[in-house]
Amino acid sequence: MKSVAYGVENATSPVALMNIERREPGQHDVLIDIMYCGICHSDIHQARNEWGGHSLYPMVPGHEIVGRVSKVGSHAKKFKVGQLVGVGCMVDSCRHCEACQDGVEQYCDDSVFTYNARDPKHGGLTFGGYAERITVDENFVVSVPENLDTKAVAPLLCAGITLYSPLKHWNVQPG
Ligand SMILES: [Zn+2]
Ligand SMILES: [Zn+2]
Fold first, then answer.
1. Using CA of residue 83, residue 37, residue 18, residue 42, what is the dihedral sign?
2. What is the pLDDT tens value at each position of the chain, 175 positions in all?
3. Could you say which ligand is closest to the alpha carbon of residue 99?
4. How far is the CA of 150 from the centre of ligand 2 (A)?
5. 77 C-alpha to center of ligand 2: Å?
6. pLDDT value at position 159?
7. How many Cβ atoms from other residues are within 10 Å of residue 119's Cβ?
8. 159 CA from centroid of ligand 1 (Å)
9. For residue 53, what pLDDT is reported?
């Protein structure tokens, strides 16, 4: 389905409106109407091809996504239409390596980033959250509590978890 997005055509072009294609939700996908997406500095680095020439164009950045589920695949069990959800920096992984089996897909060598990546299962490039909607496998979607300030939740999907994870891992205490 057609979706309006903000993206760049190359490393020097301005951010502009573009039309992208989102897949119809497959069995395990959810379609999300995006409400907010944070701007992480890595979005700018990748849009401007500042990370060693690995940028893929056209590019729709955005990996701090908050929105509401608008459609659910026939076998997707985790989310209901209308539910508030988030998507971070990855949308898929290989599902069978040791990391994936252990539930730490972020360590998978074949993880698929939310944008600026090739999508091995669906073809083409992944496009991120500077868009009106996104289709994501439910296993890479998180639920967001309704009592939070929705727009303030967006940065938690990358910047927030990046800080929270080591604090928790190392059991940081006052002082
Ligand atoms: Zn980020
Ligand atoms: Zn894996």
1. negative
2. 999 999 999 999 999 999 999 999 999 999 999 999 999 999 999 999 999 989 999 999 999 999 999 999 999 999 999 999 999 999 999 999 999 999 999 999 999 999 999 999 999 999 999 999 999 999 999 999 999 999 999 999 999 999 999 999 999 999 9
3. 2
4. 31
5. 22
6. 93
7. 15
8. 6
9. 86
Closest-CA residue to 62 (of 110, 22, 5): 5
Domains of the chain: 2-169 (3.90.180.10)
Torsion angles phi and psi, residue 169, rounded to 5: -60, -40
Per the rule left: phi > 0, alpha: psi between -120 and 50, beta: everything else, 123 is left
Q: Are 65 and 128 in contact (CB under 8 A)?
A: yes
Single-letter amino acid code for the residue at 55 = S
Q: CB–CB of 44/146 below 8 Å?
A: no
Ligand 2 mean position, distance from CA 113 (Å): 13
CA nearest 7: which of 157, 138, 116, 160? Answer: 116
Q: How far is the CA of 19 from the centre of ligand 1 (A)?
A: 23
Please give the distance, rounded to the nearest whole angstrom, from the Cα atom of residue 119 to the centre of ligand 2: 14
Q: How close is the Cα of 140 to the center of ligand 2, in Å?
A: 13
Distance 74 CA to ligand 1 centre (A): 31
Tell me the Ramachandran region of residue 131: left when phi exceeds 0, alpha when psi lies from -120 to 50, beta otherwise: beta
